[in-house]
Design goal:
CATH architecture of the domain at 5-180: 3-Layer(aba) Sandwich
Number of strands: 27
CATH class of the domain at 5-180: Alpha Beta
Number of helices: 16
Helix content: 25-40%
Structural class: alpha/beta
Length: 525
Amino acid sequence: MEFNHADLFEGIADAVGDRTAVACEDEHRTYAELDAEANRLAHYLLDLGIKPGQHVGLQLFNGIPYIAGHLAALKIRAVPINVNYRYVESELLYLYKDSDIRALIYDVELEPRVAAVKDEAPLLEHLIAVGGPSSIGVPYAEALERGSPERGFEQRSGEDVYIIYTGGTTGMPKGAMWHSEDLFMGFGGGNPYGEPLSTPQAVVDQAAAANPMVMMAAAPLMHGAAQMGTFISWWMGSTVVYVRKFDADAVWRAVGRERVNTLSITGDAMARPLAEALANGDYDVSSLIVVSSTGAILTGAVRDRLQQALPNIMILDSFGSTESGYTASEVAGSKPEKGLHYQPNATAELAVLDEKLRPVEPGSGELGTVAKAGRVAFGYYNDTEKTARTMVTDADGKRWLLTGDLATVNADGTVNVFGRGSQCINTGGEKVFPEEVEAVLKGHAGVFDAVVTGVPDERWGSRVAAVVEARKDVPVTAEELDEHCRTRLSGYKVPRTYVFVDEMVRSPAGKADYRWAARQAAEGS
């Protein structure tokens, strides 16, 4: 057994096979049952001719077929590829081609889009349809019937490749490539709150000895946060719970029904509707202990609303990315309105580097780029240029992953993160980080959601523009938002343009779509 996700899952399934591994709405699987289902699908993929290193796409909503398909690919040393279920035909064709998928497991609800572009993807030969009859794919149940429930797979390695396609908030998504052992260590090493476990057997022993909890991943499995949240749950011998599609009421019903102890979400896009649903409904949350946010910013105003709705629950906020893994935890009182303040994890080799890849002086106030060495992604699939820009080597020969986040380092070693450099707005020579302005806007009672971007300006180069989704029950005007911002932000950070939209466009994981916001702001101004 190695630090390989399929190896570790199989070891845990052998140790605690009768425990519930996964639940989604009215379906449950024990570790042994999920292992057998994944084995059947793995053997079917092998019979199709899928070989180690080849790619299997997963274009599904949350559910047991998603995680079984994911495990099936890993078991045969193939690479599961997450496909965003919101993609339209042109985006799907790009991803099918860029990722070189050979087989696709998809939801029949999405079949019209799949059918429209499948013939233009030269390597895509095999389709497996989940959820009903299909005119183009082999039914999932039939695929399972054709495969053996036993294992009998070739030996795996900690060097096996695992790819997570990023959300593409400013461009088309890219596949971050990890080695399996690095991925395991980069996302907690089996022990997110302490030293990584030293051997694969220690992971199995920990799971077997654990008093199992029930942990819910509210994000879609096509997002890395939910995938990693699932595996972390299993490393603790716990049950992981999903809802098919994110809906605040469905999440709270599942929390009560499955007696969920920890709830993992991604930022404001999930925290806000969850808080509002609690305020307007009657749910049993007595089992809940922790709500943890990863993968997107949790702003102070939204966090406060959620904490008010859950006064006895611990709310945690973590810093990391698809490429870097879990790297830092919030310092008490950290809010985007005041500056995000993080403590690097003891095991994370984290630094803030200047333009010459030298560490900035702690306490100097110098702005640099957050970088991580050691257990990180090793490149981007089919993109050597982006790999060269992101994975760099300093003068001493040390290799760093540049996260793109701009930050300063305090004298005590904690890090103040201001935002992504790619989204930073340069207006008249001043830098404005959208996250700070968005957080202030969301603090207004009339704002349901906000995304801030730059639009061209003849005098200033760019000017700050806000795309706002107002609350239906609290009317708000641009003048009111301007007054609200001017008491909380320096003048150059205050939006010059406000564009109101009926509904904000975000990724399924809650990330802002800055390309869409920029178009809305340009048209509205």
